## 1
Amino acid sequence: MTTPTALRHLATLRPRWPDWTWLHDIDAPRLAATAVLFALATAASFLAQDFEKPVTAALVYVLGVTLIGATQGPMLALISALLAAAIYNFAIAEPAFVFRFAGLDDFVPLVAFSICALTSGVLAGRLKSKAQQSQRSAEELLSLLEISKAFQRAVTPSDLPDLIALFEPSKHNIEVVLYARQNDEMELIASTVHEPTEPALRELAHETMRRRAPVGDGGGWTAYPLIGAEGAFGALLVRLRDHPQPRATRAAIDAFVNMVGLTLERCLLHERLATSRAIERSEAFKTTLLSSVSHDMRTPLTTISASVSGLIDYGDSLSRDTQLQLLGAIREQCDRLNRYTANLLNLSRLQSGIDVGRLPVIDLIDVIGGATNAIRPRLGTRTIHKALEINSLLVKADPILLEQVLLNILENAVAYSPDGSAIKIRLTREPGHARLEVVDQGIGIPPAELERVFERFHRVEQHRGQTAGSGLGLAIAKGFVEAIGGTIHAQSPSKDGAGTAIIIRLKLAETHP
Amino acid sequence: MSLVRRLRVLLVDDEPALTDVLEPVLSSAGHQVSCASTASDGIKSAASLNPDVILLDLGLPDMDGKQSIAQIRTSSSVPIIVISARHQEAEKIAALDAGADDYVNKPFEIGELMARMRAAVRRHETTSRHLSRFKSRELEIDFGARTVRLLGQEVKLSPKEFDLLATLANQAGQVVTHKRLLNAGWGGASQDTQYLRTYMALLRQKLEEDPSEPRLIVTEPGVGYRLKVNDV
């Protein structure tokens, strides 16, 4: 808890007795103001003398001196009181314009006047400087609160240099160097020193962490260990600048060390948490990938292995047709393994990034032609209907990957739609864009799944009647389409009333004359 | 392969390429094969076709594998052999606990698959007759007299070793889970497979030609043990 700690330290920031700082409070404007007030008081005092008794004049004078103390501080009040006593004695007390001590009768009022003026002036002045001091404390408290709020918002260690600057080392006349231990290395997090004498400071940081107590180097630097739940995790080095009036008290520095320590600990924890989350995500991805690879490799391998062992062990008892059927199955499953491998490779290609600048300009009609030719052997009794914009639509894309994307979408359409149904491929021009749509008459996608079908290894698990894909196809489609600045989304039921539509929009390539 | 029994086989798998291959090969080996591509179809066929053995894929789209096994078990004691491409031990154990008789990893060879089918069917029939003897090429067990002969020679076994061997022989050719073996040897008092490993090592010392390369009692890693059967 940064704030209460800071508050506790601030409570100790009260000036200690004796405190002569108020002696420094004299400057030209204050002198002028004091002179004006003093002149007014003197004038009023002379006027008051005309009313019956000189005691009125004395009271008016004391009032003037008190006012000076209250507004201009104790030092000026002291000077004014002495001056007033002199003027009172010389000019006001009878006989006027003569310094004279006729007897005890004259002397006592004069001493009384002097003591009154002095006491009330100085007391008022002290009150004034107390008020000023507590106002300064309040301001300092407010700024500390502001800083501590800012510190609480910090998320990474790299936020700390700005925060330390916010504390205004220059105002507090301190220099600051901050280290954190990361993997047994001392890492420099922040420094207000232009040329940090690094090795020596690093050594000091090590020392303070080892001793778990503040350590000085004799040259002005003091190192404070930052200690958290798991021991010392860093060090804050502080040096008071050579300055006639250093303002950072020990308590303020303690508060500062505390605040920096808590913030840095929190930032480091936060950073570690983020790292471990990232590792977790990548582990989860690897697990899914492995499970997908093992399943999607083994499924075709099972058919191949069963066919081969069937041919070897039972070949003689199999009819010629069955033998051919088994051989055909082997070829088909080899193709499937090959396609799956290609998709895995594409996935890794996508992960390593696509250089959009070097993509060639291609005609979408050619891509559609290639993909439909590739899917045709697997259509069964399904049919393909094409409705294509006749004018060529040119886009910048990798032709092989884009054909793979379309093939993946067509494979899904085949896998999830019944025999005898139609699959439509539509290509239309929109302002600046080409719109490519594959619509099937299949089982469709539940609304909750519409976004998720593009996630890696996601499969719509319900009501799957046919060979399912690897869960990679649409993920690759999305990855690639978005990498070249296009969009892809699924619509189910499609505008045609049933099934699923996968809609791709690609930016048209600029054709220069 | 003489004396091949004609079995009614129900194959439940959603991979058409595989059923297209298994069906003709199993048929040509003399079996009668029916196929289902979903768990619900498989459960219906199990009831209506009264098969001798069911080959069940664990990765069916419409139902969890354990659930479909349990459903079939509510009305039938037909041998169920699980075939699965996901080789997680926990999944296999769960399937066996749910009532499956054995499992075969994908990819498999048809010869191995058929041997497992025969073992499962044979065991299914012998349990209903309450076995008093077990006999394979190497091994002869008299359950009543609690004696064991290896290649004609009597082998002395401790009571616990005999119980474990008898449990394996009762399900000869099929995997027996750690849990079942622990129940047989220690009455469920111990869940520590370390004991089991120790006793299996002792059994192997007495029965195997080379205990480091067992041919009779084979380990199914993470799942249990299997007594290999070489037909008489």
Note: Chain B is about 40% helix and 20% strand.
## 2
Amino acid sequence: METFVELADTMVEDFDVVEFLHRLSERCVELLDCAEAGLLLADAAGVLRVMASSSERSDALDLLQSQNEEGPCFECYRRGVPVFSEDLTADTDRWPTFAPTAVRMGFRSVHAIPMRVRDETVGALNLFRAVAGRLVEQDMPLGQGMADIAAIALLQERTLRQAHGVVGQLQGALTSRVIIEQAKGVLAERAHIGVDAAFARMRTHARAHNLRLSNVARELIDGHLDAASLSDPALGASTPKR
Amino acid sequence: MPTDRLSVVLKAMAAADGGSSGSPIDRVCVAAVTLLSLSGAGLSLMVDGELRGTAGVSDPGIAVVQELQLTLGEGPCVDAWTSRAQVLEADLADPAVVRWPVFAQAGVDAGVLAVFAFPLALGAIRIGVLVLYRDRSGELSADELAYSLVLADVATHMVLGLQAGTPPGELHELLAKEPSHWAEIHQATGMVSVQLGVSLDEAFVRLRAHAFAESLPLRAVAREIVMRRLRLTETA
């Protein structure tokens, strides 16, 4: 349970999803009866990509599965159900490339658990074991829990990333609005005119020079733009020559 | 059950439709008033701890109280933003409440006896604060607190959802709900900065100080300045 709390804590601020998934795969090795763990995710085109591994060894195996579209992880993702092999040496027909390679690297059994978001399978968690046999019964819910956390983390990251873009834009717009009002006051006072007239001059200047109103406002406030260079639109002096 | 609360909130928002509340953010505020038996609710958008606009209010009357926080430079919005947590003030009339002496008094004068503020946040992101006002003192119940959090959550997504399709540099028109004097306060700030040869920040402080010294609302001082019936002097 502590692992879930610790992992959940990291999901709030400065969230880096790759770092998070790496830690998750390391925790799988500590908590579950497995030697290595790896996470594969489907990209937009539905192709599995290696996202995180507890070691180089499992990284290589995960890569093999994503390249050859063969192996427990690939099957698990395609079918959306857990896939396992109790003895990889007996499964060389099932996975001709994956099984012999895994055995050569020192693994005897493997479990693949689907990562689901609502009803959709988005990837799979691979648990590699050095001994033959199945994962003990009580480890299965924990393994599924790990896969679920990974899926939630990915969703949260997607939401946050989108929100970050909108928030930056929102804050820019909120600030611009205040600056434009302030600039009206600055220009009104410098040119001895009313704020409405000041706004008309700012707008005309922005149009004539193809500038954003907020940029004209900022330049006025900073003193980079002289009040005298914004002429009265009624005189038409600011209109560009054709 | 969070899903039940969410559906109750959304139903209340749908029922709030009609009348003058065309904005979904106004509707969140009206829904808050209905669900939590408030006297009003307001939503301010903030940047770097400063109030930058009012995105929604339950009624025009409460907009004035909400805007007071801009003119006073204190209140639940700033505190909720800074602490990243809800600010619950169950009895504004209690002299032991010294958190915001001026705002508390102004609130009581406007008939507000309790105020509850909730940051609009998504992870590390903060965009503003939702403030709930009551004309009687007393804490929010656990259930009311839970509803408040759902309302703040809904409001956050509404604001971001509205703004998402807006061109850069522009604020979605439904997110600009401040009273008409809002613009005048910033215009007056610009004028004072030229008159006194000081920065905009300093000009705003002088404006606020003048209003406080003369016991006038900031909006009234701003209006006098914009109409050129008042000019602040160096010593103001």
Note: Helices of chain A lie at 2-9, 17-31, 56-68, 72-79, 98-104, 139-191, 195-208, 213-222.
